[in-house]
## 1
Amino acid sequence: MYPFTYTKAADTREALDAGRRGGRYIAGGTTLVDLMRETVEHPDTLVDISALPLREVTVTERGGLRIGALVTMSEAAAHPKVRSLYPVISQALELSASAQLRNMATIGGNIMQRTRCTYFRDVSADCNKRDAGSGCAAREGFNRTHAILGTSDDCVATHPSDVAVAFAALEASVHLLGPDGERRVAFADFLLRPGSTPQREQALRQGELITTVEIPALPRPLKSGYLKVRDRQSYEFALTSAAVALHVRGGVIQEARVAAGGVGTVPWKLPAVELHLVGERPSESLWAAAAQQAAVGAHPLAHNGFKAELLKRTVERQLSTVGGTK
């Protein structure tokens, strides 16, 4: 681990001042500390923001939900409003990590976590995300767990967050505070596809801080849920996952929100699946037909071609679980 300085911000102003000078924000530290220990990350200054007042979960006037950036994963998953309004979020959080990590890790930190690509974490391997311009060892290496959607010549790493898949499906937004004031970014625009600049992973500006994640009000009744398919049942990252939210009225699907994880360089919204569902009556044949659209545009690598079919089956299963057949 490289030497660094540590400061604890007493309030938002102190945090922003330190961030503007190049400090890296840290709260639970469940990802950044690991990366520092492995010498993947070596920030000069850590700014502890755990004392900031960003720990509330509130219902908006229109019936949406705001989750503070410093709410822990376990707190968010157990919150009665999260569980009742958007169970897909609670389920995604509870399937994300061990209980010990969920008690430490925050919502803001979770969506900011970096890839679990083994080549990114191996400082002897070429990785454009870690060292821009060095190459991507995963493209020609063992890439069974890597992305099949949103990849580029420079990067094929997946985004590891489960709850980010739920946020993508629900079309959440991220509220930011920085030296230039407040701004709001659609979740779809917050996490960036690699393109030719894989080292830039979020749409954050220098010194900006995540304050809340907001989920918009969606029509009721709304049924939602999260399915994660992985190599082992406990504490493992997704091979594929599916977040589904359906609004059914009068026996017809009025709105559908679907996103996938484990297969994309970012949480992957599935508009073709959604379009196939809206205006139709729930049925097993509909779920199967819609799920066939899930892997449109996929570009499998040498060892992960199975993910395209697994993604279709994962989406179909979760559509059936959430939507039923009546």
## 2
Amino acid sequence: MNHWGRTAVTGLLLAGLVSSSQAQSRPEPEESVEQLQEKVRDLNRQLEEAKKALAESQKEDQQAEQEASQAETMQQELDRIEASPKIGPITFGGAIRANYIYGDYVDTGGPSRGSDGGNFELDTFRINADLLYGNIVGKAEYRWYNGYNFFHTAWLGYNFEDDSQVQVGLNRVPFGAGPYGVSQSWFFDQSYYVGLADDMDLGIKYLFNLGDTELALAYYYSAQPNGLGYTDHAARYDSDMVRNDEGVGYEERNQVNARIIQPIEWDEGITTDLGASFQIGQLINKGDADEGEDGTAYATAVHAVNQIHNWKLALQLTYYNYDIDGSDLINRGFYDFYADIATEGWIPAVSLSYYKETPDILWLDYVIPYIEYSSIMKNGETADGASFKDSDLFTIGAAWAHNGWYIYTEYAYSNGNSFVGGDPYNNFGANLDATWEGRFNINFGYYF
């Protein structure tokens, strides 16, 4: 090939290489806006699915941790029960409790009150026995306080195959959101002081379920029997209608109770126990109190206990009426002293608490901080025409648990509670003074 031929071939080869290089370096066609938007939407969907999967995994881990912690607590309680002394099918236990009290008031001689100087005193000593023999069950508890003692509980029962239960004897009246009203505190809420929480009466109670719905029906012949103490009729745990030491007053008879609670599960760990309670009974006039006629006692309440994971919000609204002639006050007896209460009123009550497990603290199993409010909003007036004043109670504190120890530390602030300053015989009644006073209380309890 001559020079010009070689030059022509070389030129053709260079042109091909340049053309190939330009073809290889050319950018791909751009994606449309719609295609890019679809990709973004797809990536967002994947991101949301990843977030949900992560949240579900964390939720399952948290639920598993809570269940493991609850199982450990239940196992500790089971170990404690199994370690209790037994005789055949009867398991024995008990508790001893003491109070440190500091009140910003002068001691006026009321029950378990302390003074403005602070003091330490025995709260209670108790012995209890639990029976389980096949389907036969039972419970008995006797308590000693400073100067008086009594049976707190004494009943026999039967567990049926459908998980229903009957109790006969001195048992807890089914009224309100729980055994202690809405309260988590040592002071309870104001419902207790008018006889509508943690009330133990003598009769028969039937507990059963219809599906998820929990029901209780009961008949009580009388209030808790009197124990041994300084007074003739007030040596007892409950706030009951009683005669005074002169034999004048009313006694409870033939009371009927009904309660319904509907559990509702909103989401995992979020539930509500929605319920209503009702009771009606006779008031038998003894010693010709007031106009000498018998009366009628009735009360009703709506309540809801809301559990939001470890938070608990308990609410209750109660109306009560001890319908007697001639007076807007009625005598009650409890803790070995007498006190008048208003015969009619409304009681709103609320409790907010948080349950915190403490696995990293050797001396503490769990703690429950709480804040509570309740009030007796009264209808009534004195013989002089002065309207009764409401009785409010605020409580803030915490309950601390470890093994057999259960300790309350709390501050109660009230303008109408016989355990927190003021006139111990009038706070739940006319309460004309209505002075706000406070009490700091530590209750040390050891349960065995």
